[in-house]
């Protein structure tokens, strides 16, 4: 029903909650949006959840908050490395049948780390995440330096890249993680607002939207990660396998 839009949509309360909560717990002020005003401005028009008249700036504040949190927290390279490592470990855990998908979906953070520690193929990742001994950036490339075929790669192709790079570098498969963020998107830009009595998508009403999308395009990075003592050979292997040119990361 229409109330489902309150918990799953461009303006859902979950998005507002985690933005404010994550800003608080990370000590980053950018996500501290005026969620009270946002909630008061929500209304339904013809069954669609919209922001009431006079709230274009309110919608823009959500967009700006999300964009800044993306740049400083969600898309920070350390967050991305930890997330990618955890993704691969979760895949190995499920593939081993050590836990069924339904139970996996219900695990808490502590339970998941415990399960990863107890399983040989994932124990090292659990240790690295717990001790913050994360992989480092072997490649950290801008959009223009990455072939379109690599950016458009699907799940299976990305995992094949990892295996090929590891083989080229003479390392085990699990020593390489390819982190391909895909094309920049901003779902919040389609938030609907009432302007002069008409319902309009925010991206057709606010010039800020294009600026935020351009910011995402500029900040976009393709990553290849590896243990700290193998980043040089992984960088060289990734350049050969993926057709990159001189994009190895030397900042860590």
From TrEMBL:
Q: Which sequence ranges are marked TM in the entry? A: none
Alphabetical list of InterPro entries matching this protein: dGTPase-like, HD_assoc_2
Tell me the Gene Ontology biological-process terms attached to this UniProt entry. Answer: dGTP catabolic process
One example GO MF annotation: dGTPase activity
All residue ranges annotated as the HD-associated domain in the record = 33-246
Q: Which SUPFAM superfamilies match?
A: HD-domain/PDEase-like
Q: Which residues form the signal peptide?
A: none
Q: Which residues form a coiled coil?
A: none
Q: Name one Pfam family in it.
A: HD_assoc_2
Record protein name field:
HD domain-containing protein
The species this protein was found in: Halobacterium bonnevillei
